[in-house]
Write a structure and sequence with these properties.
The structure is a homodimer.
Chain A lengths: L4 E6 L3 H11 L5 E7 L2 H7 L11 E5 L7 H11 L4 E6 L4 H10 L3 E4 L4 H12 L7 H13 L18 H10 L5 H8 L3 H15 L4 H10 L4
Parallel strand pairs in A: 1-2, 1-3, 3-4, 4-5
Helix pairs in contact in A: 2-3, 3-4, 7-9, 8-9
The structure holds a DNA duplex.
DNA sequence: GTGAAAATACTCCATTCGGAGCATTGGCAT
DNA sequence: ATGCCAATGCTCCGAATGGAGTATTTTCAC
């Protein structure tokens, strides 16, 4: 059988914190090894824990005095990237969810979830999942629909519009607002050559000005 | 008790399709009302269904001949936005997950999930969740960490660089590659006026050319 | 109702750009 | 080997841009 899941708790409301600790006692799978009333306290006390009692999962309140849950998550993941963090909150606005994920949270539960669901979430986490309350999961989808993905292009993939590598270099200078002369200087080329390249770029991209080319370059993730 | 969940299936492998239909029979909660071997067939046959047999959830394979699952999802959501779609696939690359979500999918299951998990996912969906296989949920988090969120600006929030509303309008035309004369025509302004606005824009944004302004506009989500 | 800010409009001038055409070189593929 | 295409460089010309300065009208807040 697997070892117990060691849990950390950061939650400023002492009543809730104690209630959680009490309830977790009834579950054999988990073991609360640290519980703090603030993110700062958690960060202070974590280094002192022996490895065997170091939390594998931290239940993190978002709203806390001092360092809030987002900041604390950032710092914890910085020092202990292998520790998973579940945000635990009553709030559910999109920006906060997004920020929590970006900070490194791997799960997001609303505080009204029953304790057995929380324990189940811990197990899911350890099995590679990303437990989320239904409402949060739905909101995440909404966030993703509004998000722009920065798709990275494999090096050998062909560039949009059949642009050559050289032409791409030139575009990158164009979006910086450089003149042909400046680009030539930067690339050790005659400004005439730069101009010829730009002519070809315009033809391939079906545009007719630097602004339009820059715009299209952004839209197509060329820069 | 709630009514049965009506299910649609789009899956080109006939063996799997039949297996799913067979297995779903054992679950009282669900009722397969339509099963097709392609996205095109689904789109063709959906309009003919009576409302009572219209699928509330569609299990959608991604890899299909003709319209693939992403395209089909797009079209289904376009015509039947209230129908939920679960992507059902063996593939799990980030771009595909992202595209599926953007197309309007509300869940994402791997084909190796047991049927009872799939049925459970349907129920979760109806309860407002977004069921995902553990692996997919984790990948979604990774995608979100790389994503840029387009945070929408409240109407009364001040624009970056203290640009006026009128100036913003002009920028939008600039990124389209228009000349001052064309902008003037579109906005019923003298080209001289357009020029004056652009001068002010340059001053406020600390740039000196249309390409640079367009570029910065994209970076700051002005367009 | 007064003042500040924004929007409108124009002039002059030097620089830059975009379009067309042309030429040479070097590398890569058939 | 040969032919194609990318990369390089150039000329001429007209159109558009960018910079500076000035002026009138509108609008909106205090």
């Amino acid at each position: 059988m697997d070892k117990k899941i060691t849990i950390g708790i950061a939650e400023d409301q002492s009543a809730l914190r104690r209630r959680l600790i009490e309830h977790f006692r009834f579950f054999d799978e988990v073991d609360v090894t640290i519980a703090c009333e603030s993110g700062d306290a958690l960060l202070e006390r974590l280094p002192a824990l022996p490895e065997s009692r170091f939390p594998v999962v931290i239940l993190m309140d978002i709203e806390m005095p001092g360092s809030n849950g987002i900041e604390t998550t950032h710092r914890v993941k910085e020092h202990y990237p292998q520790t998973d963090i579940i945000m635990f909150t009553v709030f559910e606005d999109d920006d906060r969810i997004f920020d929590a994920i970006q900070a490194g949270a791997s799960g997001y539960l609303l505080k009204d979830e029953p304790v057995d669901v929380i324990v189940q979430a811990m197990k899911e986490l350890r099995e590679g999942g990303a437990p989320m309350s239904a409402l949060i999961a739905r909101k995440m989808l909404g966030i993703m629909r509004r998000a722009q993905l920065e798709r990275q292009r494999p090096d050998d993939a062909e560039l949009p519009f059949n642009l050559s590598a050289r032409e791409l270099e030139i575009i990158q200078q164009i979006v910086q607002g450089k003149t042909n002369a400046e680009i030539g200087e930067a690339m050790f080329l005659s400004p005439f050559t730069v101009k010829t390249h730009i002519k070809n770029i315009y033809r391939k991209m079906h545009v007719g000005s630097r602004a339009e080319a820059a715009s299209l370059a952004y839209k197509r993730n060329l820069v």
